[in-house]
Design a protein that fits this description.
The chain has about 575 residues and is of the alpha/beta class. The chain is about 45% helix and about 15% strand.
Length: about 575
């Protein structure tokens, strides 16, 4: 609609990756250099991690474009949700070799002959697997077997695993340690800076042939950077909407007011009589955060101030948790309790009730029960619930994989129900009732006194007695959380990185750390981690650990973390 008005030959901010619009920031160039170094050094396995929309595909397309000569043979797999045999057939097909067999050993033999021939001709074979966080552990094991194809002194194939941060979590599983240990080159792609955001916007407009004098002023750029946090895909979405609004207003100078309207439309905020006040509040938030930006871009990137601005924006558009319905396979109830009944104390009758709870669970179709539990936990994090799920919904593997697709993690904890509740995070409770999919699981989403809200509802009531539930569980629980600060699960002494500043901030908010936010995992920070672990009944681990990070999450006061207390 606006292309002719602004003199564009095409839309400058589309979501489809177009090689002509490629903009390589400092981090993109570093990622490209790491990948090329790993390939030419024949290290075998290379890992590229990046959040959604940061430009992983841009880097991969640039890399594949550079490898289009007689010295390389490349293949790209962008739909890794395959079985091991299906993956092998896809790889062989991409390389143009026989992929007709239904057996993994035959497909591997064909691939091995191809690799040996390419190696003898002096060519490097590169396999790129995008969205690798969606790989099954069994398929990853098949990839490890492919990497075993080697000569006495060289790797025959270079494999790049590219994916979202959940890929790191997947590879950290003990059963995948063999493949994880083989990854010699790793790079985490970061969002672009504010200066790069300005250059990125200008670059895309110039490539699109802009000749109508349209421009984003410096206040608009700062506002765009605040909202998008430097994620290219979000920049495209916001700039496209801002241009559309400017076209409707016949404006060519795009400022903060137009960008704020674009944000409001993207967030689907209603335009009502309170809108001017909300806009003023949002503008004030931007001014405050821009002032914080002036204190130092490094501190902003490390997370020291980021959540202040995000909290102010979140207050303007915090969505309510989606409501999930009873799973189709679960037992239907004729009535719904409007208020929880008073739980009976454990006695002989209560013991009989525990037995009846077990019978109630067994009367439910297990897959539907698990889907309902999963959706209830996802809803607490304000993420999109699942309608249907293919395959067996077992725990922890399938639960973890589906949660990861919503940006969430499942971390195991062994202890009592009261201990799990004390962590103040929604969690999955494993019961001692078994079905075709193993143990039945219930979601615990809220606690008030001795009443615990579970999902799906039992006997038509969403609330059960705390002691009764404790007697029903096995002592295994899975905390559901989100690594908002992207803090590494394992941090070695002396390590220096921006995410450690976020760890230090959370430790301070928990009352365990009183030092500077210097981003260094030194003695003081390690001691604070141990003190926090001790105070929360977590086994001491100087390398931090996943459970410690999960339990730290509720202390992030600026991130709107769901609590069992009801928020």
């Amino acid at each position: 609609m606006y292309t002719k008005y602004f003199g564009f030959k095409e839309k400058p901010f589309t979501l489809t990756p177009n090689p002509r619009f490629i903009f390589l920031s400092k981090h993109h160039k570093e990622a490209f250099a790491h990948l090329l170094y790993g390939i030419n050094s024949h290290y075998g396995f290379i890992e590229l991690i990046g959040e959604v929309g940061t430009g992983k595909t841009t880097v991969l397309r640039t890399l594949l474009g550079q490898l289009q000569d007689k010295n390389y043979r490349t293949a790209l797999i962008f739909n890794p949700s395959l079985t091991g045999v299906e993956l092998l057939r896809s790889i062989n097909n991409e390389f143009g070799i026989d992929a007709s067999s239904q057996y993994a050993n035959e497909l591997l033999a064909v691939l091995n002959r191809f690799l040996l021939e390419e190696n003898s001709n002096g060519r490097t074979v590169v396999l790129v697997i995008d969205e690798a966080q969606n790989l099954d552990p069994a398929t990853l094991e098949q990839i490890r077997l492919i990497s075993n194809l080697e000569t006495e002194d060289d790797k025959l194939i270079q494999i790049i695993l590219a994916g979202q941060p959940e890929l790191e979590h997947l590879l950290s599983k003990p059963e995948l340690r063999q493949i994880n240990q083989r990854i010699a080159v790793r790079y985490r792609l970061r969002p672009i800076s504010m200066d790069e955001t300005r250059a990125y916007i200008r670059h895309r407009m110039e490539v699109a042939g802009e000749s109508g004098g349209v421009s984003f002023n410096r206040y608009a750029i700062k506002y765009i950077y605040l909202y998008t946090r430097g994620v290219p895909r979000m920049i495209n979405i916001l700039c496209d909407r801002a241009l559309l609004i400017a076209y409707g207003d016949e404006r060519r100078d795009i400022g903060a007011s137009i960008v704020s309207r674009a944000i409001r439309e993207i967030l689907n905020l209603p335009r009502n009589r309170f809108a001017p006040k909300r806009l003023a509040t949002m503008t004030a938030a931007v001014i405050a955060v821009v002032a914080l930006l002036a204190l130092g871009a490094a501190q902003w990137q490390s997370g020291r101030f980021r959540h202040v601005g995000q909290r102010l924006l979140a207050r303007l558009a915090a969505p309510s948790a989606p409501v999930t319905s009873e799973p189709s396979g679960a037992k239907a109830s004729a009535t719904t309790a409007n208020s929880p009944t008073k739980a009976a104390s454990l006695s002989a009758s209560a013991s009989r009730r525990i037995s009846s709870l077990e019978q109630e669970l067994l009367s439910y179709e297990q897959a539907g029960t698990h889907l309902h539990a999963l959706n209830a936990l996802i809803a607490r994090w304000r993420a999109q619930p699942y309608g249907t799920v293919g395959g067996r919904l077992t725990t922890p593997d399938t639960f973890s994989r589906l949660a990861a697709k919503r940006g969430l993690r499942l971390t195991p904890f062994t202890g009592t129900l009261d201990e799990a509740i004390r962590f103040d995070l929604p969690f999955l409770a494993v019961t001692r009732v078994s079905g075709d999919l193993g143990a039945y699981c219930l979601a615990v989403t809220a606690v008030r006194g001795d009443s615990v809200t579970v999902s799906p509802a039992l006997f038509g009531k969403g609330v059960v007695d705390r002691k009764e539930l404790a007697s029903l569980t096995t002592g295994t629980f899975y905390l559901v959380w989100k690594n908002i600060g992207r803090i590494p699960v394992t941090i070695t002494p002396g390590e220096r990185r921006n995410e450690i500043s976020t760890l230090q901030r959370l430790l301070r908010q928990a009352g365990a750390y009183h030092g500077p936010f210097d981003g260094i995992y030194g003695d003081a920070t390690a001691a604070a981690v141990r003190a926090f672990q001790h105070s929360h009944g977590i086994a001491a681990d100087d390398l931090v650990g996943e459970l410690t990070l999960a339990v730290l999450v509720p202390y992030d006061t600026g991130a709107n973390i769901p609590s069992l207390k009801g928020n």
